[in-house]
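Help! Submission page says 'invalid entity' but I think these are all valid:
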Amino acid sequence: MTDTNVAPAAFEAQVRAVLDPLYGFACALIAPPEADDLTQVACLRALEHWDRFTPGTSFKTWVFTILKHEFIDRYRSERRWAEHRLELTTPLEGIAEGLESVLIANQWNVEVRDALLALPEGFRVPVYLKDVAGFAYREIAEIADCPLGTVMSRLARGRALLRTALAKQATERGLLRDARARRVAR
Amino acid sequence: MSCRAMRERLAAYADDELGVEAALDIEGHLERCPSCRDALGRQRDFHAAVGRLYLAPRMPDGPRRALLRRLHPRHRWRQIGIVSAAVAASLVAAVWVLRMPGIPADVQAAIVMHETAEHGTAPLELTSSDLPTVNRWLRGSVPFAGEVAPGPAEFRLRGAAAVDLVSVSAAWVLYQHGTEPVSLFVLPPRQLPDVGRSLTHKGIDFRTIEVGDHRVTAWNHDPVSYLLVSARDRPPAEACAVCHAGPGAPALAGFAVSDGR
């Protein structure tokens, strides 16, 4: 275990490089100000175990993994983010054609964030880690501590749920025609 | 390959997660299947839109500075004895000590520090509600202070800082009780202030000093001494709960109060 009184320069440099993405991930797991605490605790825990980090491997993946475990230990049972706010219905294949253009044209930053954060944790984590943080599947499996196949299925499901939620909002605001109605009209 | 089998692997292909052979299989299918090509395009566009539109927050400056100070040797207690944000707060405290005639300077400084918490500008070095984290920080940053004990749930830890109470170094542990902050300062052994009311409990002498809207309770408990700052209009023993199991804990009952002036 590393002496927590001294942070090696290499460690500090690594932390500085990943601090914002790490904080972003913390915010995807739990709302501020707990996300502040979670980020700090994860960094201090990483410092404690700095001697266990394998040079040449990804520090970002390592510290994200630590943060995820800290979250599980400290907060998961409390369920600070309301779970299951989305209906877990099977998304319709082919629904919402043109949705991406609507999202970009209307700069749906808040809507995308809120919809992603409203996903149940099991789906939210892989979607965030892949589409926002840019991790590879095997890295997501390491961080989320689950098999690769589980990552793939949850990612697919999470993306489909996210797409459905955003399509529903866009349709309700009149920005997107209901695909089912369109199909009926054909 | 059927379209159904194709769709199950399309996301992995879109994410560049397939090996060469699997990717070539899919590309062969895509050349023949406009429906799967459309699906692939939609997936890629959607993933890209999410990544582009989701604006991940930047860590706020306060917690960022606190963390980096915690990690950066230049700011550590051992090197320079005190941390920069606390120095600034200490200077503010020093400027204000003359506003409370008859009150010891360190008590005044503790009150000024506490007021920064009331105003939401407490210069904490560590922001954390996690007791082990705060204690780790205390061990590393203010070694003489020891550790703080778990308090009742209604007293939420907010964090800690190394501060200078005009002429004496101290650890500042900040709690939140409802809407009110409660400050616990841990100092090296010292004489109790010769003001306020005297309270004796289980062989320990206490002084309670009421200044303006604040109550300061001072006591020695070898090898350190303490200053506890809280709101004057709250019950006297309430803030003591930060070190006890709760406001009704037996250790808090039966204070013998007398005029110590």
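Support: the input was valid. A stray whitespace character was the problem, and the output above is from the cleaned input. The interface with chain A takes residues 11-12, 15, 17, 42-43, 45-60, 63-64, 66-68, 70-73, 76, 78, 126-130, 133, 136-137, 139-140 of chain B (CB under 8 Å).
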